[in-house]
Amino acid sequence: MNIQQVDFLDVEFEDANKLFDYDLIFLNGGYPFYLLHFIKKSGADLILKKINQNGGLIFGLSAGSIVLGPSIALMQYLYPEDNQFNDTNLDGLNLTAIHVYPHFKEMLTRDPTIKEKIDKYESKTGINITRLDNNQAIAVDKNTQIFLG
């Protein structure tokens, strides 16, 4: 992609308007609740939506891929103890219609019941969860989705 320079911007502590200065934005992993909380608190959610509408490139890894979707409600269902701010609005950025659960294969070794838990959530809500392993990705461009991996 011929990336000449990489900067780090933490919207918890820095002005989210700086996001407009970048040609490509990469939302890193961590805790989805924490990430989404500060994206919304800083106003970065509105900025990222505007960047997306203008054709900007936005990538998400792990928690970053989760918050790009419609909701993080699956995380509330699976890991309510991680919602340290007790946020009730679990709407994601809605930049993609895909609900992602990353690290699925890898998580099976730590929690063999994760498949059953996600299946139960899907059955209860009618929401399809896309399970991704660490060597998989989804590329989304407007209405086109390409599964990689």
Description:
The protein is α/β, with parallel strands linked by helices and 149 residues long. The protein has one domain: 3-Layer(aba) Sandwich (Rossmann fold). The chain is built from six helices and six strands. A two-stranded parallel sheet has the order 1-2. The protein starts with 23 loop residues before the first strand and ends with a strand. The model has no long low-confidence stretch (mean pLDDT 94).
Our Rg estimate from Cα atoms comes to: 15 Å
Strand content: 15-25%
Q: What is the share of helical residues?
A: 25-40%
Overall residue-averaged pLDDT value: 94
Query: What is the CATH T-level topology?
Result: Rossmann fold
Number of DSSP strand runs: 6
Derived structural class:
alpha/beta
> Quick one: biggest sheet?
2 strands, parallel
Instruction: Provide the spatial order of strands within the biggest beta sheet.
Output: 1-2
Give a quick precis of the structure:
34% of the residues lie in helices and 16% in strands. It has a single domain, classed as Class I glutamine amidotransferase (GATase) domain (Rossmann fold, 3-Layer(aba) Sandwich), CATH 3.40.50.880. With 149 residues, it is an alpha/beta fold.
Keywords:
149 residues; alpha/beta; Rossmann fold; two-stranded parallel ribbon; 6 helices
Topology:
Layout: E1 24-27, H1 32-42, H2 44-53, E2 57-60, H3 63-67, H4 73-78, E3 99-101, H5 104-110, H6 114-125, E4 129-131, E5 137-141, E6 144-148
Parallel strand pairs: 1-2, 3-4
Antiparallel strand pairs: 5-6
